[in-house]
Specification:
The chain is an alpha/beta fold. The chain is built from seven helices and six strands. The chain has a six-stranded parallel sheet with strand order 3-2-1-4-5-6, sandwiched between helices.
């Protein structure tokens, strides 16, 4: 299987708001979690491509085992994925951007018979143009998921508690409990 990830990007300027799409954060911590998922998929024999903008996050994905990285700053990521797959497209695409544009891109990168996991929730009222002909005749499966259920939270805690997830890729620093509110206040722009 070839897996493609397209997470939200770190803002590259004060006016870049690509990551402000939901009230749920997708900052550097979530980027590291995604890198860990890539590591686990590589361990299962999948070829993993990760897209993004921020060099630090893309480098973390490489350290976690991603085979290739694609920067949106270098051009069309759909074409980059097509080139990387010999024109075939990705077997699985995990979209975590939560924008109509990234949903459309994710569908465009999937191969015939591919699967697209629409992880990034779009804002209420968002309408996504869809090539229904391509979805139908190429048998592309679309899966919408919501990631904050107790089952998934418990699974994440279990992975951390048992050491099956290398926390050195996820934890970059420690703060005191009383500093948590100010940490989120000072880092809200990284979501």
């Amino acid at each position: 299987d070839l897996i493609f990830f397209d997470p939200p990007y770190d803002p590259i300027s004060p006016t870049a708001g690509f990551t402000a799409f939901t009230p749920f954060p997708f900052g550097r911590d979530q980027q590291r979690e995604l890198a860990e998922t890539a590591r686990q998929l590589v361990a299962r024999g999948c070829h993993v491509i990760v897209a993004g903008r921020g060099r630090e996050n893309l480098d973390t994905s490489l350290k976690a085992g991603a085979h290739e990285i694609v920067s949106a700053l270098d051009g069309d990521i759909v074409e980059a994925v097509r080139r990387a797959t010999g024109g075939r497209g990705a077997d699985c695409v995990f979209e975590a951007g939560g924008k109509a544009e990234t949903w459309t891109q994710s569908l465009a990168m999937a191969r015939k018979g591919g699967r697209v996991c629409l992880f990034g929730g779009c804002a209420a009222g968002t309408v996504v143009p869809l090539d229904a002909h391509r979805v139908h005749y190429n048998q592309i499966s679309l899966h919408g998921v919501f990631h904050h259920t107790p089952r998934y939270f418990k699974a994440a805690v279990d992975l951390l508690a048992t050491g099956r997830v290398p926390v050195d890729l996820l934890v970059t620093r420690q703060i005191r409990l009383e500093d948590v509110p100010s940490y989120f206040l000072n880092n809200h722009d990284q979501s």
